Each structure stands twice: as C-alpha cells, then as structure tokens.
C-alpha cells in the first residue's frame, strides 16, 4: 500500500541511512539504495493505466497531465481523454473548445492547448511519430527537459538522467541528510550513478512510488532544496477564477462580460481583466461584447 513500508523495508532504509551518513555515496551504498527502491516497487508498486502501455502518445498525455495534477485525478481524466482523443491525429484536428472541455477538472488549462499544439506538430512535421530524443522533445510546447526525459524513459525505455519533484525528494532524503540549499547539480551525478540502465522505465516508476511514500511519512526533504518554493494559495486566486470563467464560456458557448461577472460572483473589474487575459492568450475570442471559445 502506498504510504507505508513493511517492517523489513523500514529497517533496510534505517540501516542504509546510517551507512550513507557514515560512508557517503559509495558504490555499495548506491547498490543497496537501488535494491531498496526496486524491492519496494516490486512489492507495492501502483497499477496505473499509463504503466500498462509504452505507446508514445499515451505516455505523452499522462506526463503532461501529471505535471501539476494529483495522480488520483489524472487516473480518471486520462481514460476519459483517451476515449475522446485516442491518437495524435484525433487530438491534432479537434476543435480547441472540445479539447478544453475534455480537460475540465484538471486545472492549468494551458497544458491542454500545449498538448494539442504538440500533437499538431507531431502530425505535421514528424509523420505522426513522436521523436525519441530529449533535446527535440524539449522544444515542443509545454514540454521542458524533465518532461521530455520522462517521456523518453517511459515510452522508449532509454537510460536518461533527470530530476523532478519525487526524484529530488528521495535523493535529498538519502544522500543529503543534513544538507540545506541542495542544488540539482549536486543531485544529478547521484541520479546517474543510481540509474538502473537495464530497465529505466521500471526504475523511474519505482522512484515515483517511493517518493510518494516519503511525502507521506517524512517532513518534506524538498524544503531543503535550493529550488524549493511554496505553492501560492489556490482558493480565491486569479487561477481559480480563470478556471471558473473558462468553464462557463465552454458550457454556455456565448456569454457577455456582465453575465460572466454575475455567474461567477466576482468584481466586474477583476472579471474584465481576466477575460482580456484569456482572450489575449487564445483561450477565448471576443466579438461585439460577447465571448466564445475559439
């Protein structure tokens, strides 16, 4: 079960932490670390829908969804999204309003637009086949170096080295036990040493699950990272209001500024500013004082 270790694994972790504190990241300690992570995963790994496929399109969709949304919510929306858009072609050619409707409930709607633009580029420039190259993928909309690396690892089982939140959490917990302001360039050499090059796909899945365990049973090690920043409050934020306004436009098809302000219960000046932003960013279109989804 995610969130706990069995007694044997708990004792193995305790001993390994002591060994690393005394000896550092020796080759033997790296091996023991790898064995611990993999043994946990093989006994308790989550059965997630994107782990049952190596299809590059499906891996791409899951990685974009997982960027800023909890696994439990993604697991539901992932299936629904793939039913509506099962491949690059269907997503690339769909009306933007349909893509945004399918994305509702996920938040950060820019990801939906970026995902569709990526699908269009794959279809138009790469014959419908996702490039198996980190540097190329990192140039696609909404795909940075970490997401590109994850896609390559999971879809193509390639031994790439990268850092994301769970990976950072695990390596700080084990190898920087007293560290403060730990930089990613200090962590990366250890990620490379620990990488299971025989099965990168399984290794990174194992890291994701162990990172989830640590999140639930320890004080967040990422607070000791140089790149740590506290997430801003969502309730009452512009981000929340943007989502409500966009959902309303998608639901109604056509609305006026006054209708939006009345329906979302926000101050007219704030609504006007957000409508202008959504229009400028291409989410909606304005004509004659009414707003529609493009």
Could you describe the 3D structure shown?
With 294 residues, the chain is mainly α. The protein has helices spanning 7-23, 27-44, 56-66, 71-84, 88-93, 96-103, 110-126, 134-137, 145-156, 165-175, 184-194, 200-217, 238-252, 257-264, 268-280, and strands at residues 254-256, 284-287, 290-293. It has a three-stranded antiparallel β-sheet. The chain starts with 6 loop residues before the first helix and ends with a strand. The model has no long low-confidence stretch (mean pLDDT 92).
Structural class: mainly alpha
| Chain-averaged pLDDT | 92
The fraction of residues assigned to DSSP E strands is under 5%
Strand order of the largest sheet: 1-3-2
Total number of beta strands: 3
Distance between the termini: 44 Å
Question: Radius of gyration, rounded?
Answer: 22 Å
Spans of at least 5 consecutive residues whose pLDDT stays below 50 are none
Assign an overall shape.
globular
Which sheet architecture does the biggest sheet show?
A: 3 strands, antiparallel
- In N-to-C order, the SSE pattern is HHHHHHHHHHHHHEHHEE
Count of helices? 15
Q: How much helix is in the residues?
A: 55-70%
């Amino acid at each position: 079960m995610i969130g706990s270790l069995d007694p044997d694994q708990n004792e193995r972790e305790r001993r390994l932490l002591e060994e690393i504190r005394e000896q550092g990241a020796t080759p033997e300690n790296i091996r023991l670390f790898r064995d611990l992570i993999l043994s946990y995963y093989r006994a308790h790994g989550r059965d997630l829908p994107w782990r049952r496929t190596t299809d590059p399109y499906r891996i791409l969709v899951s990685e974009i969804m997982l960027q800023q949304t909890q696994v439990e919510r993604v697991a539901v929306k992932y299936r629904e999204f793939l039913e509506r858009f099962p491949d690059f072609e269907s997503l690339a050619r769909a009306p933007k309003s349909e893509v945004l409707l399918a994305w509702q409930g996920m938040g950060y709607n820019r990801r939906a637009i970026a995902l569709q633009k990526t699908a269009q580029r794959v279809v138009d420039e790469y014959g419908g086949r996702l490039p198996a190259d980190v540097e190329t993928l990192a140039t696609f909309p909404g795909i940075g170096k970490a997401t590109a690396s994850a896609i390559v690892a999971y879809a193509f089982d390639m031994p790439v080295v990268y850092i994301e939140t769970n990976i950072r959490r695990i390596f700080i917990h084990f190898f920087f036990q007293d560290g403060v302001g730990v930089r990613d360039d200090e962590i990366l050499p250890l990620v490379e040493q620990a990488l299971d090059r025989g099965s990168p796909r399984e290794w990174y899945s194992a890291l994701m699950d162990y990172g989830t365990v640590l999140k639930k049973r320890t004080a967040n090690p990422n607070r000791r990272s140089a790149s740590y920043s506290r997430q801003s409050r969502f309730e009452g934020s512009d981000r929340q209001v943007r989502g409500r306004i966009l959902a309303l436009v998608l639901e109604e098809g056509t609305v006026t500024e006054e209708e939006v302000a009345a329906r979302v219960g926000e101050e007219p000046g704030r609504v006007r500013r957000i409508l202008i932003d959504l229009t400028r960013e291409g989410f909606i279109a304005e004509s004659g004082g009414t707003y529609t989804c493009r």
